[in-house]
Amino acid sequence: LAERIALPPRPDELHTLATAINGLLERIEQAVEREKQFTADASHELHTPLAVLKGTLEVLVRKPRTAPEYVESITLSIREIDRLTHLVDQLLLLARFDDSGMLSLRRQELSVLSSVHDVLHRLRADLGAKRIRVDVQDHATQAVVSDPFMVDLILDNVVSNAVKYSPAGATIVIELADVAGGLRCTIADAGIGIRADDLSRIFDPLYRSDALAHKHIGGTGLGLSIVAKACALLGIQLSVDSTLGQGTVFTLLFPAK
Ligand code: ADP
């Protein structure tokens, strides 16, 4: 840990400077601490499923191919590899956000409504499986200038979460409206909601609420941290409002052209 600068007795300019430097040192230490914690958590997330996979395959290799659990174990292993691949893809994307030189944005005029429909089209199997209805209300007249890949990534994560954390048969409302300063897109679900304590932490990498209702729902805890970074990069204001047991509303404010 860095040494703090001893404060001079009189509150003069030197005193102000020393206080500012001490504050800066504290922020750097907190950032290093967060980085260490993230690396430890990410290693754990990668290591645990790999150990399970190795164990499963070691048992399987000693069994005859005709054993009844053979196909089932291999199917489960493939699913676990898919989950790991997704996790690694998300970690790489997050790393690219931290090294902004690796990301080149391509801003162009785009329709948020079309992006919403693209996302819903990709999610149609999940929507069908849970019988979830999506009500898209378009009151906006403006196009926005942004990066289409990033906008797709943002909407995909937020809408996928709305589907994932909603009960079967629920309705999700996506509304687009012109407001002062730009175009507002709200994604409202009537799902499990987020505890007030968790609200400030859901954008932290790898953070997942440990609320009971949520234990059986799979995820990496990386989606919203990617969303937050993409929004910051594009000047999109992101906010969330939620009531536990009632539902969640994510709001994206795209700046006017
Ligand atoms: P995950 O892969 O766990 O969904 P995210 O980063 O996308 O990761 O979200 C972080 C956490 O925020 C989730 O684990 C969940 O606790 C909470 N969350 C996000 N979206 C919603 C939602 N629409 N309804 C309820 N909880 C949500």
TrEMBL record:
Residue ranges constituting the Histidine kinase domain according to the UniProt record: 41-257
Keywords: Kinase, Membrane, Phosphoprotein, Transferase, Transmembrane, Transmembrane helix, Two-component regulatory system
GO cellular component, as recorded: plasma membrane
The protein's enzyme class: transferase
GO MF annotations in UniProt: phosphorelay sensor kinase activity
Catalytic reaction list: ATP + protein L-histidine = ADP + protein N-phospho-L-histidine
The EC number(s) this enzyme carries: 2.7.13.3
Compartment(s) of residence: Membrane
Ranges for domain HAMP: 1-33
Stated name of the protein: histidine kinase
Native source organism of the sequence: Hymenobacter taeanensis
